[in-house]
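Q: Could you predict the 3D structure of Aldose 1-epimerase?
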Amino acid sequence: MAFTQFPMQREIVLTAGDTKVGVIPEISLVSHFQVGNWQVLYRASETGNIKRWGMPLMIPNFSRLKQGIFQEKGTILPIHGFGRNLPWTVLQQDASSITIQLTSNEQTRPQYPYEFTFTAHIVAGEGTLTYTLTMENRSDEVMPIAPGFHPYFAVSQKDKSDITIEGLPKVDPHTIQWAIRPPDQPNPFPHSVTIHMPHEGILTISEQPVDGHYSLSTMQVWSEPSTAPDHDFVCFEPVVTSEDGLNRPADRLNIAPHSSQQIILRLSAKPY
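A: Sure. Here are the predicted structure tokens for Aldose 1-epimerase:
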């Protein structure tokens, strides 16, 4: 589809050498990551479904909550949170970076009754995309949160079984029935995973420590069967914790009143 071609009208383009990053601030979407001729992140060109491409931010929750209920407050939160459904404000922008922000408002409080500021700083480097998420709790009580990243990595259906992975010993692409029974399970995330994409290059997904501390403990691996439209991707999703994690105090992040916490994710791509 021509309207999905990079860059689209509302896409802000960041560059560093032969690296290009696209960002759509109104839905906090990293919409494009390309190194040389390698388009690393998938774009849903068949359906144009913008929720099925790039690297959405899932905040304040990854995946589903049981019955959709946030038990702490008895409120309803949608799958993957509300961050990707609300407009973010651009605070800063230059040739290689952008900073966008979402602040608690009348739309967020009925679902998630905390005063917060979420800030995303996205930087294009030589062969890298670095995403720094700052979560500030401006409330007088602890703010539970369990965000994650949902990157769609472009790979054709016929090539999925030829992917090789370092760092996820329980995921063997050679034995997965990608066409009929693709994976959808959480795995321990050892802070860095390296993926060899057939014909394209080597991709590393890593969390950078903040004051020696890591926040992303889980990597969800997911794809679609060949019967689904726009299936030429595999998601390797670094998240704080697995499904319903916002309702598990020991697994989620618990940000103290009037303090903040940061997560830094880096994608590095080296074409063959």
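Q: Anything worth pointing out?
A: Residues 2-271 form a domain with the Beta-galactosidase; Chain A, domain 5 fold (CATH 2.70.98.10).
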